[in-house]
Amino acid sequence: MRSPFAPLFGSQPPGPKPLSVAELAARLQSQVQLLGSVVVEGEVSGLRGGGAGHLYFALKDPRIDASISCVMFRRDAQVGGGERIVEGLRVVVRVTPEVYTARGQLQLVVQKVEATAEGDLAARREALKRKLDAEGLFDRARKRPLPEDPQTIGVVTSGNGAAFADIVKVARARGRVRILLAHAQVQGEAAPRDIIRALTMLAKVREVSVIILGRGGGSAEDLAAFDDEGLARAIAACPKPVVAAVGHEVDWSIACLVADARAATPSHAAELVVPDLLPRRRRLKDLAHRLLAAMRTRLAEPETALARLEARVRAPERALRQHAQRLDELEQRLRGPVAARLAHDSRALVELDRRLSARDPRRVLDAARGEIEPLSIRLSSAMRRALDRRAHLLSASAQRLDAISPLAVLARGYAIALHDGVAVREARQLAEGDALEVRLHEGSVDAVVRRVRP
Predict the structure, then answer these.
(1) pTM of the prediction?
(2) Which of 228, 241, 243, 397 is surrounded by the fewest CB atoms within 10 Å?
């Protein structure tokens, strides 16, 4: 039986002798060494330090998601700018490619590092991010929710750019909303100041309920205006919610981190801010159908009940005659009790009228006046007797007070000696030269003690 693994077209000549892994690594190393020293530009990623002071990282090309492992030995790091290597920094390095035989891995041995202008920008951006993050400007707790149904939205961007056109297109397709543009430069040295001015101006408009801050994509230098510290603080201080839509989906500026919401693109920002009216219209249409069906059901219930009653009432004329007869019987039965009740009420009314005449208000008032007059005379007499008694008691009390008054004693020729306003009772209370006030029955005199005789 023929083996399934046998050659289909006869026997094959024997192949070359296989290489060992070490031999293949050595050949690769010899080929790589032919490149010599080269200059490479990329972004630092996965930076870590070794125990001996070496630096390990990868150089990335974010445009095509490619990376190569790098090592910078301690001596080269000390003299070749190793201190410049920062995570995320875009750098230009002079390297020697080699194959790390222990792993069979291509790596770049870095001899010298120079940061590019874009790399310096990234380093400053990272430092500012750490500073603002420490101050709490990125905290989710301080971010405000977006309004559910804004009537007017503000947009800070270039009026000539595609970003504003995208926002207007998406917003008008989704619903009816008023768009207020504050034109600003979004690129260049003057851009941050211009964006802050436009943002502040829109924040003062009472009708604006949310603000979109954005521009289209670009390089890191193009988007640098949205990494400005002053702009970040202006966004945090803005009294209206701010949506940042800067660049493309992969671009995260500092303005995006501070804003209340971040959109991947300006079009996405319009989708976040403007509610889509189409689902609302569908919902309203569905509710209208359900309401109409409910109303029809509700109106059909009385019609059904009426039909049921009509079916029960076979001969309405006969029923009416029976009810009329029944009404006559009730009227006859009602007349007797009503007449008796009326007669009884008439008699009661006559009795009440008689009793009311006996209690005529004029008669009652005349009788009351007759009773009040003697009482008034008795009251006046009692008051005079009481006043006479009080006057007699007052005269007796005055006489007793006059009898014990010091003024009466003074009237008989006596005097009171006062020292410092206190009556002197004993001679030893005084000393020679003390001033005295001698109070007489009428007036007083001042005196001086010349001699004390206890």
Answers:
(1) 0.42
(2) 397
